[in-house]
User: Fold this.
Amino acid sequence: MKQTQKCSKCDSNDVIFVRAMTMGYGSGNFIPIGFSIWSAVPVDRYVCAECGFVEEWIDKAYIQKLRDRYSE
Assistant:
């Protein structure tokens, strides 16, 4: 949905972009990589307003940080 602006499940073009955010008390849409929410990796969402399907995407700039933290 990120590239096509079209739902991969129902083919609707009614896609809503929800920008990742980090809020107080640990809420928001992110992946923790450190001890505080300020070191978290933001996760953007694309939501189909027709069927409700959701895709989550991480900016490529954060991929290496995730590898460093979570790869074994």
In short: The chain has a mean pLDDT of 89. The first strand starts at residue 15 and ends at 18.
